[in-house]
Design a protein that fits this description.
It is a single chain. By secondary structure, this protein is mainly alpha-helical. It has one domain: ABC transporter involved in vitamin B12 uptake, BtuC. The protein contains 15 helices and four strands. The strands form two sheets. The chain has a two-stranded antiparallel ribbon with strand order 1-2. Strands 3-4 form a two-stranded antiparallel sheet. A hairpin with a 5-residue loop joins strand 3 and strand 4. Helix 3 packs antiparallel against helix 5, helix 3 crosses helix 10 and helix 5 runs antiparallel to helix 10. The longest helix is centred in the first third of the chain and has 30 residues. Keywords: Cell membrane, Membrane, Transmembrane, Transmembrane helix. It is found in: Cell membrane. This is Amino acid/amide ABC transporter membrane protein 2, HAAT family (TC 3.A.1.4.-). One of its GO terms (cellular component) is plasma membrane. One of its GO terms (molecular function) is branched-chain amino acid transmembrane transporter activity.
């Protein structure tokens, strides 16, 4: 077994151990750790296009919101009229049976991922025709526009939002269920992107990142690869949004479903902090960012944005390659890298940089 593969197994073991131990020994922190799984998922999915492909998006949160609303519509429409359910005058109150709730939840999670992926496939060819800052600003505008459109869509409650179906069980059972779902989704997403990066698809999107014009000249259908990569990120973000909407219990367009100024920025900051374009960098960045965010929100209320802003500034000025990139340069052998005569770290034979 290579040193890189051994390190991977250890890291997966740490994540699984945390997932198992938190409910047993720190049940009061279940929701906090569940949000950490979501943060890891956001950083990983952003890195598919931002790190591996070189297309820095500021609007991936749009897939999060689309998945959330698609799930809500499917869950409610199975057993009630959505327009009546979301009416501002409270036309009806629906009590979902356990069977109805879990049937709707399963279908809703699938619908959230599929709806987000379809949206990415439809809008991708046009948006991904933009490059550099134009793509970043375009995606940010897209997220803001979709949020405003949903805010005026009365069928789903408009700006008043939607109260999600209540989890049918003991109060502690709901958070634990969503904790498990987010943990499994994050693990599945990480295993999937690990496989994806090891295929020809991974080589193609890396070629796009390095020089898109040369990649096109070599016969790579760049727009096709870019659109598919964005759709993969959208699918996992959509499912994550569907789970988070149910965990929150209430969906509101600007602050919960399409939070461009919080989650939309956080996912970029987390990937940069850990090291974009690496397999484990977004995971590391998300964990550290989430810990700092929770500590500052708890003990430095009023200064939390200053602390997070300082982290971003220090990261950009002193650690542009991220923590993992810096560690790979300092201790290359620990990551299965060799150093050539010029001092540049590169993967050893048969290994890939993590």
């Amino acid at each position: 077994m290579t040193s890189s593969a051994s390190l991977d197994l250890k890291l997966y073991g740490v994540l699984i151990a945390v997932a198992v131990l938190v409910p047993l020994f720190a049940p009061n922190y279940i929701q906090t750790v569940a949000v950490m799984w979501l943060m890891i998922l956001m950083a990983m999915t952003w890195d598919i296009t931002g790190g591996q492909m070189g297309y820095n998006s500021l609007g991936n949160v749009v897939f999060f919101g689309i998945g959330m609303y698609a799930s809500a519509i499917v869950q409610i429409s199975q057993f009630s009229d959505v327009a009546d359910y979301t009416a501002s005058f409270g036309a009806i109150v629906v009590d979902f049976t356990p069977g109805q709730y879990f049937t709707g939840l399963g279908l809703g999670l699938a619908a959230g991922g599929i709806a987000a992926a379809i949206f990415a496939l439809l809008i991708g060819p046009a948006m991904l025709g933009l490059r550099g800052p134009y793509f970043a600003i375009g995606t940010l505008g897209l997220a803001i526009a979709v949020a405003e459109l949903v805010s005026g869509w009365e069928y789903v409650g408009g700006g008043g939002g939607i109260s999600m179906p209540v989890y049918p069980g003991p109060p502690a059972a709901g958070p634990f269920t969503f904790y498990i779902l987010l943990g499994l989704l994050t693990l599945a997403a990480h295993l999937f992107v690990r496989w994806l990066y090891s295929t020809q698809f991974g080589l193609a999107i890396n070629a796009i990142r390095d020089d898109e014009d040369k990649a096109e000249a070599m016969g790579i259908h760049t727009n096709r690869y870019k659109t598919i990569a964005w759709a993969v990120a959208a699918f996992f973000m959509g499912v994550g949004g569907a789970i988070f909407g149910n965990m929150s219990g209430f969906i509101e367009p600007l602050e919960v479903a399409f939070p461009t100024t919080t989650f939309g920025i956080f996912m970029v900051a987390m990937a940069l902090l850990g090291g974009k374009g690496t397999l484990w960098g977004p995971v590391l960045g998300a964990v550290l960012f989430h810990i700092v965010k929770q500590v500052t929100w708890t003990y430095l209320l009023g200064w939390q944005w200053v602390a997070l802003g300082a982290i971003i500034i220090i990261n950009i000025v002193y650690f542009q390659q991220g923590i993992l990139g810096w560690a790979q340069d300092k201790w290359p052998e620990a990551f299965g890298l060799t150093v050539d005569r010029g001092g540049a770290a590169r993967p050893a034979a048969g290994e890939a940089a993590e």
